[in-house]
């Protein structure tokens, strides 16, 4: 794939993930403004709903994609030594994957316990 096509894909991923993040945040702010869970158990029950947990997982995936594209572009533009760039990209990738797995585990445990 050409560098130009890669840039277009990164641009599209950034815009699509930003749109989902914005819409999800508007939905959650509206929902929690009017139907805030009154206890931890009510919150756990709310999160255990398959639609909510899938929406939250998609939110985290979109957030990680959005962050990855942003940090990748910054590192490519401003870190010129290739080994430093590869090292930093690897560290960020490991961190993002770890965060995603941690969140998936939290959602899974909340769904099982409810």
From TrEMBL:
Q: Name one GO biological process term.
A: tricarboxylic acid cycle
InterPro entries in the record = SQR/QFR_C/D, Succ_DH_anchor, SuccDH_FuR_B_TM-su
Q: Which GO terms describe its molecular function?
A: electron transfer activity; heme binding; metal ion binding
Q: Transmembrane residues, as ranges?
A: 12-32, 52-71, 83-104
Q: Which residues bind heme?
A: 66
**Pfam families cross-referenced by the UniProt entry:** Sdh_cyt (PF01127)
Instruction: Kindly give the membrane topology term recorded for this protein.
Output: Multi-pass membrane protein
Which cofactors does this gene product need? heme
Q: What is its main location?
A: membrane
Q: Which domain of life is it from?
A: Bacteria
The record's keywords, sorted A to Z, are: Cell inner membrane, Cell membrane, Electron transport, Heme, Iron, Membrane, Metal-binding, Transmembrane, Transmembrane helix, Transport, Tricarboxylic acid cycle
Localization per record: Cell inner membrane
Q: Name one GO cellular component term.
A: plasma membrane
Which residues does a ubiquinone bind? 78
The record's annotation in CDD domains points to: SQR_TypeC_SdhD
Pathway note: Carbohydrate metabolism; tricarboxylic acid cycle
Cofactor binding notes: The heme is bound between the two transmembrane subunits.
Provide the function of this protein. Membrane-anchoring subunit of succinate dehydrogenase (SDH).
UniProt name for this protein: Succinate dehydrogenase hydrophobic membrane anchor subunit
Instruction: Supply the source organism for this entry.
Output: Sedimenticola selenatireducens
């Amino acid at each position: 794939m050409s560098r130009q096509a890669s840039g277009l894909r990164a641009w599209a991923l950034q815009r699509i993930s930003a749109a989902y993040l914005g819409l999800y945040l508007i939905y959650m702010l509206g929902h929690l403004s009017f139907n805030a869970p009154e206890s931890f158990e009510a919150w756990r029950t709310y999160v255990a709903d398959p639609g909510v947990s899938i929406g939250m997982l998609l939110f985290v995936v979109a957030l990680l994609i959005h962050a990855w594209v942003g940090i990748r572009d910054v590192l490519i533009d401003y870190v010129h030594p290739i080994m430093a760039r590869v090292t930093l990209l690897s560290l960020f990738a490991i961190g993002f994957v770890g965060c995603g797995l941690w969140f998936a585990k939290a959602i899974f445990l909340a769904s099982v316990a409810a």
